[in-house]
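Need a sequence for this fold. Nothing fancy.
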């Protein structure tokens, strides 16, 4: 019976494409948790949460993918699948901006991953209708997922596809009705899109069709490399949930209320020990205890004036617009948060001199102009905060990049008297107007800049090397994160750099969390679009009040970093596939 169903090409026409990327498999990381019990106890606590609409799948790996000599035994692939499913679940459940309806639904695995096929049977590369039927008929009833090498056929010729799935009509029937299959590929794993491909193909199983608007959507027909998009509409979420395989999963979305809305960031959640909500997801304090304020133009990645304040949940990039900075629609081109004084500073680059302002991080509005930099046609394009070597305010400084001269200049500003600057050194790179992101890692004492320049985009600037000579500045090898409109910030809570920027001539907005010790990012998320111009990492409000220096010393002592593999991407990050 199943074979007859699969024989209808009209129901098997949903596949996902990308061009094969270089094969650079990476081990799946393990993340250690950091528990900060004292701070965690200050947050609001979530009440009853909705049940997870769970999709439990049986996973099969083609036997020809097993290469124990290369470390790729069945256990390896199970780890790959589990990590990719977990990452995909965060795309479903978490928010990625106003377009996205966070969705309380997850994929799971009900039995151990097993192999299928026989050595050399050719089913590791799907080329024909017969092979498709053979795979789809493997494993009996229930929802089944297959990992093979690559796909050239899916209900018809489909070269360079990376996923293929049965798409039934929308019936609202859960409980594995009908029996379903999906196929995903090592090709998508190699191109670091496997989490999105898995949830995309399961979306077809849940009757969803392809969409064409909003690049961040899970159900886009073509996956762009890089970038994992997690956006879905509310109606797609309803259909996705209806495709569940169980009536009572026994799991809860602990960062949702019973109406299906996500809880405020900073709410205590239960799925992770000492967890906090961040954008609808429950994360460990050190990740989820950070929020970001961006100066930006929401709703476009094509460079509109950055006169709005955005609030970004650090865990996976959920964002909302707080307010326009001022009634006069002042643009802000640099933001930095002074942790010791809980002050958010911004730069308004007026036609003549630049204004230093303070910003209310909750309301998103300018509080006051606190200084004027008499720099004429020169303009400050980015800003960072250095708390200094001591707890005294006397060595605090704002670090800024002033562009427009022969060279760009790194200068410092005393937060207590922000109407003058001190030259620290020049930058030899042109055009320094493009060094739009600046962040100071106070733990390592390193200054970083984010740019659109390949291959790595991220620069480290050695302030000890200047003046009188220009500051030594080099790209962080292997980072591979080059962005237009790049904005960068550092959080001493997480010890991580946060990068937002646009790509592909303003079509997409990317979000990365980067380890400053290696320059590596775990993933690149494609968010609902906005054009950033400044970024500042601040503590979640529940943790900000009254913490001050105590917080800094505590997190400094307990800081951990995650071991992430280097991502090696080249400048040629262009639209892939068709
Ligand atoms: Zn598809």
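Here you go.
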């Amino acid at each position: 019976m199943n074979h007859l169903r699969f024989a209808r090409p009209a129901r098997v026409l949903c596949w996902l494409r990308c061009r094969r990327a270089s094969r650079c498999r990476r081990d799946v990381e393990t993340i250690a948790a950091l528990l900060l019990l004292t701070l965690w106890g200050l947050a609001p606590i979530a009440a009853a949460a909705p049940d997870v609409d769970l999709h439990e799948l049986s996973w099969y790996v083609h036997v020809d993918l097993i290469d124990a000599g290369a470390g790729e035994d069945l256990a390896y692939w199970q780890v790959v699948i589990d990590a990719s499913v977990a990452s995909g679940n965060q795309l479903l459940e978490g928010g990625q901006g106003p377009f996205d309806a966070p969705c309380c639904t997850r994929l799971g695995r009900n039995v151990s991953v097993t192999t299928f096929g026989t050595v050399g049977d050719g089913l590791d590369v799907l080329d024909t209708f017969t092979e498709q039927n053979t795979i789809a008929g493997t494993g009996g009833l229930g929802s089944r997922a297959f990992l093979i090498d690559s796909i050239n056929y899916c209900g018809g010729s489909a070269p360079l596809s990376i996923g293929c799935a049965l798409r039934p009509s929308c019936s609202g029937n859960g409980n594995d009705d009908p029996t379903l299959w999906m196929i995903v590929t090592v090709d998508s794993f190699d191109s670091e899109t496997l989490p999105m491909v898995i949830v995309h193909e399961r979306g077809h199983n849940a009757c969803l069709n392809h969409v064409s608007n909003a690049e961040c959507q899970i159900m886009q027909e073509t996956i762009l490399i890089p970038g994992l998009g997690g956006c879905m509409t509310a109606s797609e979420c309803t259909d996705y949930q209806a495709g569940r395989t169980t009536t009572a999963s026994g799991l809860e979305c602990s960062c949702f209320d019973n109406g299906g809305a996500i809880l405020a960031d900073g709410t205590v959640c239960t799925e992770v020990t000492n967890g906090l909500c961040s954008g609808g997801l429950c994360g460990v304090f050190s990740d989820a205890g950070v929020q970001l304020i961006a100066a930006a133009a929401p709703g476009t990645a094509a460079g509109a004036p950055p006169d709005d304040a955005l609030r970004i949940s650090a865990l996976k990039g959920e964002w909302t617009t707080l307010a326009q900075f001022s009634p006069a629609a002042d643009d802000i081109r640099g933001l930095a948060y002074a942790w010791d004084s809980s002050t958010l500073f911004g730069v308004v680059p007026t036609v003549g001199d630049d204004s230093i302002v303070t910003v209310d991080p909750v309301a998103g509005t300018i509080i006051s102009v606190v200084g004027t930099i008499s720099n004429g046609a020169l303009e400050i394009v980015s800003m960072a905060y250095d708390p200094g070597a001591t707890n005294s305010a006397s060595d605090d400084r704002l670090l800024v990049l002033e562009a427009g001269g022969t060279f760009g200049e790194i200068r410092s500003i005393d937060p207590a008297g922000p109407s003058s600057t001190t030259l620290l050194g020049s930058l030899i790179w042109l055009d320094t107007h493009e060094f739009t992101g600046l962040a100071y890692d106070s733990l390592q004492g390193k200054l970083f800049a984010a740019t659109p320049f390949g291959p790595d985009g991220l620069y480290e600037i050695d302030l000890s090397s200047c003046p009188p000579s220009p500051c030594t500045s080099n790209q962080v090898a292997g980072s591979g994160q080059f962005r237009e409109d790049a904005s960068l910030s550092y959080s001493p809570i997480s010890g991580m750099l946060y990068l937002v920027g646009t790509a592909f001539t303003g079509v997409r907005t990317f979000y990365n969390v980067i380890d400053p010790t290696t320059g590596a990012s775990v993933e690149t998320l494609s968010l609902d679009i906005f054009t950033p111009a400044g970024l500042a990492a601040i503590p979640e409000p529940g943790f900000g009040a009254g913490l001050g220096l105590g917080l800094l010393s505590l997190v400094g002592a307990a800081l951990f970093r995650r071991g992430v593999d280097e991502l090696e991407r080249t400048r040629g990050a262009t639209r892939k596939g068709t």
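For context: Residues 1-41, 544-578 have pLDDT under 50 and may be disordered.
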